[in-house]
Amino acid sequence: MALRDELLKSIWHAFTSLDVDKSGKVSKSQLKVLSHNLCTVMKIPHDPVALEEHFKDDDEGPVSNQGYMPYLTRFILDKVTGNFDLQDFNRMCWTLSFRKNLNQSQLLISNDDAFKIWCIFNFLSEDTYPLTVVTEEIEYFLRKLTEAMGGSWVEERFEDYKLQLDSQQQSLSAWQLIGLVGSGHFSKGIERQTLSMGVNEVYQELIMDVLKQGYVMKKGHKRKNWTERWFMLKPNSISYYVGEDLAEKKGDISLDLNCCVEPLPEKEGKKCLFLIKSSQKTFEISVSDKKKKHEWILAIQTCVSLLRQGRPAPHREARQKRRELRLKLRAEQEELELRMNQLQLANEAKQLELEDMRKALEEAAINAAEEEQRRLQTQTELQDRYQTDLEREKMVSKKMEEQVAQKSTELEQYLQRVREMEDMYRQLEDALEDEKRARQEEEAIRRLQARLLEEEATKRIELEEFHLRQQRAISQTEAEKRELEKERLVKESALQAAMKQLEQLEQERHGALEQYQTVMKKLEDATNNTKTWKHKVAEHEGMLRLIQPGSKGQQMITNWGPAAFSDAELSLRQKKWQEGKNQTTQAQ
Question: How far apart are the first and last CA of the chain?
Fold first, then answer.
């Protein structure tokens, strides 16, 4: 810590003690007295007019700490040379401040001990105003004090106090720290004198930079006699006094970069000797035991090493490291808080985003539900439509089955006609047997021939008309069949089954045709067998004619039985029947 920072802390206490009503401002008359005392203690020429000149543009009201700082810096601190007693400076500031803030009647320590604790507070406090000391520095000071009093540190007691302190605040002011030590909370069972000696030892180390002190024997340079002196080791010097009360100072040993310390062998009846070599003189020192000898040599070597490295005293360096660590931890904490805030903001943004996503998902779910409802409705409509189409297909299939059944019925009728043809052939045989009897009736048949021919012509015309209607019906059936064929290609397996049945019926029809051809062959054989009879019939002018199979239309029957034809008419009739048969086969 720079000298100016140390001075500012003590001045801050003095300034705040002048602020009686705690408004943060002090009157100019009081600042004049304070400035005069500061200049006197720090041996700076005082200019009483400078304060008035500095604040001449302001009103007559009091001045704040911030308003006093420019004057303090310019006219006092900038002129500090360091040739003053810092302890006297602290005493002056302490005198201005302790009466207002400290109730000494309730303390177990003296005013001098309270002053030393106040100085230790200024040393350990943070560089921020108002001045406070954090719990880490409080623990450091109390540990030092306990060690100086020869007591043992009770960690649990401080942890309890730390919890109590953290629940209220995380730091103490100078007067709270003095009250804590003066109340004896951490020095129960210890005498006041021991507590005072402990405070003084910590004060000597932290404030006066005394790294080590104690009685040693020093050999004189002139008389060469050994005299007991009280040695105080500081970072750059060793001061020795007549006694530990520091009433009479006998001299100093300056430590520099070339200074060294060496152990010496026993001589002149003195043990535990060591030699201190400075740039000016050499000092022979004797201590009571080897442990103290080692401690003094190590302490002096440490001071010389610190001077060579340009480092401050160990306790000041440790304090600086603790502050840097706290700053680092504070910066990390602030960074962590910043990151936490950022994460919180990001989390809030993410929550908003998730909320938007949730709303979007809800809307999507609603839309999906509506879409699902529409899809189900569409599916229901399609199912209804499909059901309707299926029923339509079933109706068509039923019609097809009816048509197939009708075709089967027609086939049965056709087969029945074939069986009737067979019966007719059998009857023809019977007629041939009855030929003799027919000759007797031939004359009557001739008479009836004309009428029969007329009826036969009429029947032929009717047969042709029926045949034309049948052809149109077949054409219409074929057109319907083609339409049904198209529907069969679109529809499902029901129509295919019907087609398979049609194919099976087609095969049965072909079988029937084959049977019919067989019957025709039998008929030809029968015709050949009745060749003689046919000639006879031809000789009798066609009165009796052979019955041939008719068309698929209605069979022509006269009043006298099956119609008879001449050979020419029979050939013409057979030719037409064959053409009709071919056309029917091609159409199928």
Answer: 123
Give every CB contact of residue 107 below 8 A, 6+ residues apart in sequence: 114, 178, 179, 182, 183
Residue 229, number of CB atoms within 10 A of its CB:
19
Peptide bond into 130 cis (omega under 30): yes
Q: How many angstroms separate the CA atoms of 258 and 278, rounded?
A: 7
CA angle 326, 307, 218 (to 5 degrees): 120
- pLDDT tens across 368-380, in order? 888 888 888 888 8
pLDDT tens figures, 423-461: 888 888 887 887 777 677 777 777 887 787 888 778 888
Amino acid 537: pLDDT: 52
- Name the amino acid, one letter, at 383: Q
Does 544 score more than 60 pLDDT? Answer: no
Asked whether 393 and 495 are in contact (CB, 8 A), the reply is yes
CA distance 339 to 345: 9
CA dihedral 483, 489, 492, 495 (to 10 degrees): 50
Other residues' Cβ atoms within 10 Å of the Cβ of residue 121: 24
| C-alpha–C-alpha distance, residues 186 and 203, integer Å | 17
Q: How far is CA 305 from CA 35, 262, 312, 562, in A?
A: 40, 14, 11, 157
Is pLDDT larger for residue 262 or for residue 55? 262
Residues 40, 47: Cα–Cα separation, whole Å:
11
Instruction: Tell me whether residue 397 is exposed, middle or buried, using C-beta atoms within 10 angstroms of its C-beta: 0 to 12, 13 to 18, 19 or more.
Output: buried
Hey, what are 452's tokens? 């029969």
Query: Phi first, then psi: what are they for 254, rounded to 5°?
Result: -80, 135
Take residue 122 and report the two structure tokens written for it.
Answer: 């200024």
pLDDT tens-digit series, residues 137-177: 888 888 888 888 888 888 888 888 878 776 667 788 888 88
> What pTM does this model have?
0.57
Could you tell me if 412 and 513 are in contact, meaning their C-beta atoms sit under 8 angstroms apart? no
**CB-based contact 99:139 (threshold 8 Å):** no
DSSP H helical ranges for 233-313: 290-309
Give residue-wise pLDDT tens across range 173-224. Answer: 888 888 888 888 777 778 888 888 988 989 988 888 888 999 999 988 888 8
